Amino acid sequence: MTTKPLQRSKSGQFAPGQSGNPGGRPKDEHRVGELARSYTLEAIETLVDLMRHGKHERVRGTAAQALLDRGWGKAKVEIVSNVEGGYLELLRAVNERTPQRQLHADR
After folding, report:
1. What integer pLDDT is reported at residue 5 of this predicted model?
2. How far apart are CA 79 and CA 87, in angstroms?
3. Three-class SS state of 26
4. Are 18 and 4 in contact (CB under 8 A)?
5. Strand partners, 14
6. 39: which strand partners?
7. How many CB atoms lie within 10 A of CB 63?
8. Secondary structure of the chain: what % helix, strand, coil (to 5)?
9. Using an 8 Å Cβ cutoff, are 64 and 52 in contact?
10. Residues forming beta bridges with residue 8, ordered by sequence position
11. Percent of the chain beyond pLDDT 70?
12. What's the mean pLDDT in 87-107?
């Protein structure tokens, strides 16, 4: 069986009309989520058991955090800064003050 080579531009992008996944998404993909959701009660019971009876504090804390995140949503992060402007200005200021690391191809 031979396959037709995919046409790409010089930048590596697919040419118009070409796809890296011509078959599309697997047809049974929605069933994976449905199957995972069928274990919700057991997963929650397992997290509760780990939270209450885990041998290590880290395991108990992680299980408790997972339960809280799923039940109430992840906590919002408040950013307090003396930088004028919005969030992007703050990110730029942090970037300017952070030493840039060199990337090495040999690593």
Report:
1. 61
2. 9
3. coil
4. no
5. 8
6. none
7. 19
8. 45, 0, 50
9. no
10. 14
11. 87
12. 72
